[in-house]
Structure formats: C-alpha cells, structure tokens
Specification:
The structure holds two protein chains of two kinds. By secondary structure, chain A is α+β, with helices and mostly antiparallel strands. Chain A folds into two domains: 30 residues; 188 residues, Alpha-Beta Complex (Sulfite Oxidase, Chain A, domain 2). Chain A is 27% helix and 25% strand. Chain A is built from six helices and ten strands, in the order αααββαββαββαββββ. In chain A, the strands form two sheets. Chain A has a five-stranded mixed β-sheet with strand order 2-1-10-5-6. In chain A, strands 3, 4, 7, 8 and 9 form a five-stranded antiparallel β-sheet that branches. Chain A is globular. By secondary structure, chain B is of the alpha+beta class. Chain B has two domains: 190 residues, Fumarate Reductase Cytochrome B subunit (Up-down Bundle); 56 residues, no CATH class. Helix content of chain B is 52%, strand content 13%. In chain B, the strands form three sheets. In chain B, strands 2-3-4-5 form a four-stranded antiparallel β-sheet. A two-stranded antiparallel ribbon of chain B has the order 1-8. Chain B has a two-stranded antiparallel sheet with strand order 6-7. In chain B, strand 4 and strand 5 form a beta hairpin. In chain B, helix 1 runs antiparallel to helix 2, helix 6 packs antiparallel against helix 9 and helix 9 packs across helix 10. The two termini of chain B are 21 Å apart. Classes of the chains: A alpha+beta, B alpha+beta. Chains A and B meet through helix 1, helix 2 and strand 4 of A and helix 1, helix 2, helix 7 and helix 9 of B.
Chain lengths: 259, 287
C-alpha cells in the first residue's frame, strides 16, 4: 500500500513539473511569428485566404442576424478613435457638418460628392445588428443610413473596379496614419452595407463616427470605418497605405474579418 | 520494464514472464493524426489565451454588458494603497490573483493582463499574431479530424476500438475501480474509460470547440444563424469555448498522468511505432 501511495505522489509531482515546464518555457519560443515579414507567418496567413474563400461560398448573400428593439440594452460602445483632431474635421464639426461632402471617386463613370442632406434624402435602411469587436466584445445597436449599393449605382463602377476603399478623417498611433478600410464588391453591394448617419434613432454622434460611418455587418468592428470622407473604387489597394487594405491590416490583422 | 530497440522482431529472451507479446495496436492514421492534434491543441490553447487577453471577460448572452452586468468572469487590475493588485471576479466573487490573473510579470515588470505572458503565444500582447496562429491551427485541426474520421470509418477503428460495447458498459464499475487502484491492463483494445474519454474528446469537446468558435464569426452567423440559437448568443458561445478549453486541458492532464502511470515508454512507443507490449495473457501478433 505504501508503495502505491509513494508512486502516486511521484506521478503527481512528475505531471505537475511537466505541465509547468511547458507553460513557463513554451511561449516566447514562438515570438518570431509576430514578425510581420517572416516567411513562417506568411505561411500561417494562408489560412486566412482559405477562410475568405470558404466563408464567401457558405455565406453568399445571407444577411447578418438582426435583433429586436428590446435587445438594444445600452449605448453603442465607442472604441478606437472617438474624437478626431485633424483641422479639417474640427472645422466641419464646428459647423455641425453642414459643409461636409462625401466624395465618391476612383474607377467610376461619374465621380460625385454628396452632402449629408443629399444622403439623408436617398432611400434609407435601418437595421438592429450586433457589432463584434476583434477584441472579443459585442454590442447591439440600431443603425440608419443610405445603402452603399445605391451610391455605387449612381456613380456606376467601371468594370475594372474590384474593391471599395473608405478614407477617413481620423488618425491613429504615433505615426498619425490616416484610418482607411476596404471591402470587396460583394460586401459593398450587400443590402446591409450602409453609410450610417443615424444611431439608435438619433443623429450619429462623434464618438461613433459622425457624420458617416460605414456598416459592413458580416465582418468585425475594424471593418466598419468611422468619419468617412472619401469612397474610392479601385482595382487593387496595394498602393494605399502599406498596401494591405486597411489601417489594422497594415498592422498584421486579416483583410477579411468575417471571423 | 522492457526496452527493446528492434520492436518489429521481439527477441524471445526479452519476453520474460512479466512481459507479454508485442502487438500492433495503433494504425498509422491514428498515430499521425494524434500528433498533429497534439501540435494543433498546443498552439490553439496558447494563441487562444492571447486572444482572450484582448478582452479578459466572459459574458452570457448575445452582447457584452457595458450598461448592465452579464459577465461571469472578469480579470483586471486595481490600484490599492499597497500598489497595483490583480483581481479576478468569478460569478460575483472577487479574488486577489496578483501574479497569476489580471496583473502578472516579474519584479518591476508587472503588466496588466488577464493571462500571464508564460501562457500566451506570442508572450507579449499581440492579438493580430494570436489570431493568425489560432486560425491556421484551427483549420489544420478540422482538416485532420475529417481525415481521421474518414480513415476510422473505413478501417473500422471507430466501430472496433472506440464504440463502447454492452460488455464495456457492464465492466465500467470494475474498470473505474482498477484505475483508482492504479491497476492497468495492457490489452489489445481500449478499456471502457479510455473509449469514453477519447470518444468524448473527439465527438463532444472538439465539435463543441469548433462550433462555438464558428459562432463567434460574424460571417458564419449570417450563413448559419442557428449557431446563435443552439449556443444562446455570441457571448455565451465565447464563454462555452473557454469552458470547453478548460475541459480539454483537464483531459490533457489526466491523459499525461495515465501515460506516466501505465508505462510511459510502452505507451509512447505504441503512439509512435504502433507496437505495444501487452500483458502476458494477450495473444501474439505476427509482425
């Protein structure tokens, strides 16, 4: 009996030592994968292309789930930039965005600019959706805006256009790089993709992206650019920013953020 | 303990009274997929804890309560007169977890973080890299599970080795008793506790892990909205994902413990070469 007890205790000791040595020694071994230009990371990132292809196949035109009024239980949580300080933005904000114009340019037949009033006079869509942040939290809110597809129909995309890029007033980080984002035409033309000017039945506040924030409901929060001033149709985003299709993409996040 | 390097040709001299015959116990499919899973789960665990650290709170429901409280677990740090302390709140009860959760690091390099650096990949805060690693190994895990399932259906591994029989169920109390007494049988097939635990991991824990992971994907919620219904919302799915992770860690600890207790060299050999030294009453295989 004492022999069994002894061996049991020894086993527990061995097991604990093993687990803790993995736990303590293991993890900085793989810090090299954080190097954005390492070939190992390039290889791992191929999984994101697979995710994009498979999700596009599975999702098709399906709508993101929409919720009922009763599920709006709190104000929309502001995150990222909440109060842009560029001179151009401050001047527009001081005048309640009366002078704001949304420019639509790039690979389009007829480039156009839209004032807030013009956007509000177009057919609108209101949806109660769940915003999922890449950090892991979610928040349900009601968004009202002009479907992006309406605007794209008016300016008429050229056949070469493959992506829509959104340029924003806000800057982030020590380099004060401008925020931008991009999506493919499938998301751009999706019925829930709207240029939102209203939040929870009120005018969209500055902290949530006034005057215009794009909602791309089937992707994570960083794909919902705030403070948008220009929409550009492009055949490639490789020459914009650091070439990865968005501010966070340039810093190592996936371009397709459906997961 | 018998150590023979040339296992394909067991020398008769080594087959002493206490050692039975070498039998071919694990197919190449089982061995290969076992080690790929082990690798995947290692990276998934530590990259997952990196992702968790971006928001070290767990909630119940569709959304995260900021204007109301629906959290069941929360890790963070607070300033006290004695300096910063790590705090973990679980079901409304707060614990001081300085050095472990909420606040960790060595000496003057204390950091506010949910899970300590030693348990995350990368060791420092890098959500983007954590996600890249996590999704790569998630795909590899799913692919390997699919290959294993096909192979195991075809070669009979599922039916022959994993599905518990009526005899197994009847033997359950005795098998539990044997395990508690550290009395291990080295037979041709898995005992009933092995069948139940391996089956539980492969057919319950891993599928729940994969499906709750997909429920966190806004794209998949559009494609398969029923995911939100079966798991009770995106944030509940995230919580279940975390709890299932704990169950897999528990399985790993018990699994390693059992390997050590039942004869680590023999067990390891069978999972590397397929050959396993059985008890003397087990009939012999011709290699």
């Amino acid at each position: 009996m004492s022999k069994i007890l002894l061996s049991r205790r020894r086993f527990i000791g061995l097991g604990t030592a093993g687990v803790s040595s993995i736990a303590l020694g293991g993890c900085d071994l793989f810090d090299g994968l954080a190097d954005r230009s390492s070939s190992a990371r390039d290889f791992l990132e191929k999984a994101n292309d697979l995710t994009y292809r498979v999700q596009r196949l599975l999702i098709g035109d399906a709508l993101a789930p929409e919720y009922s009024e009763s599920e709006i239980r709190q104000p929309m949580r502001p995150n990222g930039s909440t109060n842009p300080q560029t001179a151009e933005y401050l001047a527009l904000k001081a005048n309640d965005f009366a002078g704001y114009k949304l420019k639509v340019t790039g690979l389009v037949e007829t480039p156009k600019s839209y004032s807030l009033a013009e956007l509000r006079n177009m057919p609108s869509r209101t949806q109660i959706t769940r915003h999922d942040c890449v950090e892991g939290w979610s928040c349900i809110a009601k968004w009202t805006g002009t479907p992006l597809s309406r605007v794209l129909d008016e300016v008429k995309l050229k056949p070469a256009a493959r992506y829509i890029v959104f340029h924003c007033f806000d800057t982030l980080g020590s380099s004060q790089a401008g925020y931008y984002e991009s999506c493919d035409l499938m998301d751009a033309r999706h019925p829930q993709t709207i240029l939102a000017y209203g939040l929870n039945d009120k005018v969209l506040p500055v902290s949530n992206g006034a005057p215009i924030r794009v909602r791309i409901e089937r992707q994570l929060g960083y794909k919902q650019p705030k403070y948008v001033h220009t929409i550009e149709a492009v055949d490639s985003f490789s020459k914009i920013g650091r070439g990865k299709g968005g501010y966070w993409e340039d810093r190592g996040y996936e371009w397709y953020a459906g997961i | 303990m018998v150590h023979d390097g040339h296992i394909a040709e067991p020398a008769p001299a080594l087959k002493a009274a206490h050692a039975g015959p070498l039998i071919y116990r694990q197919s190449a499919w089982t061995r290969l997929t076992h080690w790929i899973w082990a690798t995947c789960l290692f990276f998934l665990l530590f990259s997952g804890l990196q992702i968790f650290n971006a928001r070290p709170d767990l909630y119940i429901g569709q959304q995260s309560g900021f204007g109301f409280d629906n959290s069941i677990l929360s890790m963070g740090a607070v300033n006290t007169p004695e300096g910063p302390r790590g705090r973990t709140t679980l079901f409304g009860t707060t614990f001081d977890t300085t050095g472990w959760f909420g606040l960790s690091g060595s000496g003057d390099d204390l950091q506010v973080r949910g899970i300590p650096a030693s348990l995350t990949i990368p060791s420092y805060r890098d959500l983007a890299t954590g996600r890249v690693i996590h999704f790569f190994f998630a795909w590899l895990l799913v692919g390997t599970l699919f290959v294993w399932l096909c192979a195991s259906l075809i070669n009979g591994h599922l039916r022959r080795d994993l599905a518990p029989t009526a005899k197994d169920i009847a033997a359950l109390p005795r098998d539990v008793g044997d395990h508690v007494r550290f009395r291990f049988h080295h037979g041709r097939s898995y005992n009933v506790l092995q069948k139940l635990s391996y089956g539980g991991v492969l057919f319950i824990l891993l599928p729940v892990m994969i499906l709750t992971g997909l429920t966190m994907s806004p794209g998949m919620d559009a494609a398969w909205p029923w995911l939100l219904d079966i798991f009770g919302g995106r944030q509940t799915a995230r919580t279940i994902h975390f709890i299932t992770m704990l169950a897999l860690v528990l399985f790993f600890v018990v699994h390693i413990f059992m390997v050590l207790a039942a004869g680590p060299l023999n067990e390891l050999r069978s999972m590397i070469t397929g050959w396993y030294r059985a008890d003397p009453d087990v009939s012999e295989d011709k290699p």
